[in-house]
Amino acid sequence: MKRVFLIIILILIFVNAGCTAGSSAIATINDKEIFRQELDMQMVLTEVSYNINGYEMPVKGNELEDLEQEMLNNVLESYMLVDLAIEKGIEIDEDAAVEQSESLIDGLISIYGSEENYENFLKEKGQNRKKFDEYIFELARTNEYIYDLYDEVTKDISVEATEIKSFYDENIMYYNYSTASVLGMQIEDEDTANVIHREILGKEQEYDETMLEYEAKTGVISVIDYGILYYSDMTKDFSDIAFNTNVGEISKPFSSEDAYFIIYVYDKEDQEAMPYDEIKDTVESDLLNEMKMTQYNEYFESKKSSYDIKIL
């Protein structure tokens, strides 16, 4: 697990800030209260992450509620992970946490152009600069605990040469730099996807033109030109469909990560997979990381039941 603190992945980072006076409790985990202001600050960072990646942050309705629930779950999980790290006697590098938090704050200031603009952004979100900076430092400390716990739990994992070669053979498409250029339509449900697919096939015009016309249709979430994709750019099920659809054709509707898609492949460039001997070290690292993450997740799942969580 790389010790990298990138703003672009803030939405995935767990937090564990301290309690804030005057903020109401929204959950408890064992004897610890989780406060609303803690979640609000996480949502501010999440909005920054959305903006950086070109996404629109939900502002109301079920989408906002779902996002807040996801962030609250992250806060709760972070508490458990830090608690488990402390139980194992892990002591973090405080200087590394300071450096990490200062780097993040500098990055935020850079995004907004100046300290004044950054502080104005925080004011718009109802945040105090001093308290928010303290929160970021606590976030950095939490990440140090999580990284160190990961290292401790996975320190004895190793791989054999035969396992590395088998992993390469089983995942050879990830080491193949062929590309597919894809226009994709994301659809709310399977029935709507099947209806749209039949309608597209029945129209006497180019598939891509027809798909773009459906962008505002009820049940269509989005129509996106993904451009040039490598196999590893998308989920396995999405990439399998993309690389097995001929140029100039559309796929049948398929599900990927709880959504339904129809895709149109408008170009491809085929290449041979990289020879095993040339990328053996990369393959070994990939396999090792996968095995470590599996063990880490299994360890965490085995510990969750010992925590009493209540949403208030």
UniProtKB/TrEMBL annotation:
Database matches in Gene3D superfamilies: 3.10.50.40, Porin chaperone SurA, peptide-binding domain
Keywords assigned by UniProt, alphabetized: Isomerase, Rotamase, Signal
Pfam families named in the record: Rotamase_2, SurA_N_3
PANTHER family registered for this protein in UniProt: PEPTIDYL-PROLYL CIS-TRANS ISOMERASE HP_0175-RELATED, PEPTIDYLPROLYL ISOMERASE
GO molecular function: peptidyl-prolyl cis-trans isomerase activity
Domain of life of the native organism: Bacteria
Signal peptide range: 1-21
PROSITE patterns attached to this UniProt entry: PPIC_PPIASE_2
Ranges for domain PpiC: 177-267
Annotated protein name in UniProt: PpiC domain-containing protein
